[in-house]
Amino acid sequence: MAQYSTEDQFSLEYIINHVFSPLKLPQGSDQSLENDLALSEAVFDAAITFSDQLPSDKLRLWTNILKMLNNLKDSIRFSVMSAEEVEHQINTLETEMMGAKGKLICSYPGPAITVPDMNIDNTTFPAELANFLVHMDQDVLDAAATRKKAKSIVLEERDTTHPWYITELLTGILRGLGSIANVPRIRKRIGGGVLWDSVKLPWRRSPLWLVIRVALQTTLERSALGQATYKSFMLFFMARLTTLALDCDLSNDILHFMSAKIARLLFKQQC
Predict the structure, then answer these.
(1) Is 203 exposed, middle or buried (CB count within 10 Å of its CB: 0-12, 13-18, 19+)?
(2) Which helix or strand (DSSP H or E) is residue 233 part of?
(3) pLDDT tens, 129-180?
(4) Could you tell me if residue 249 is left (phi over 0), alpha (psi between -120 and 50 degrees) or otherwise beta?
(5) Are 87 and 193 in contact (CB under 8 A)?
(6) Which of 79-88, 182-191, 253-262 has the highest mean pLDDT?
(7) Biggest alpha carbon distance in the chain?
(8) What pTM, to 2 d.p., does this model score?
(9) Are 21 and 205 in contact, with CB atoms under 8 Å apart?
């Protein structure tokens, strides 16, 4: 049996929790730059190995996927994109998640605007757009969740920020320069919980994992590789994690859950 360090096993358990979402989950936040990097590296490594399963005429298209995943990995490694930024942009609001009966159905991408090249090529436009996005990342505005504490209104760190300054204000500004774009959208059933027990921040399913899945699916479905390749890679990645879990001698309960989930997804793919 292969030998794994404690750090490697912790990273694997983190990835399994967020990819498979087993019955027993942490009761507090486990998100960190290191864990997000481990997840992005695991997906990238699996994508490289998956290349061997593709016919030669589709390898060029898959190369674009590898470049995308590598860019994501590097952006996390060099702290260009933090876990907090991804969480604020992707996570659903706590009230929506807790109030949902079953899973939430969300469509991606969100609002899409097409802007003419003459505006984009204007030297002022890119600088002003970048300046707007920088301020949205840094400024604390009224979109942040709040709560009452000792008769004062304070920021609620346990809830997520409403994205309306991007989904409504920015898109409204861009609509003044362009028009609504008709883009293909996908629907995701979001089943991540909000769990906490005597801790500061709750556990939520990794928003980065959602970003990866949406990016892969939308990119593949718009290419000749199609949805079948997306589903095949997801099964390949999950089977690879199960093999690593066996090598790390994880509990039989986890291994059974992982195997059952893969079998269920494989059955759905063949129907």
Answers:
(1) buried
(2) helix 226-247
(3) 888 888 876 766 665 555 666 666 655 555 566 677 777 888 888 888 889 8
(4) left
(5) no
(6) 253-262
(7) 66
(8) 0.77
(9) yes
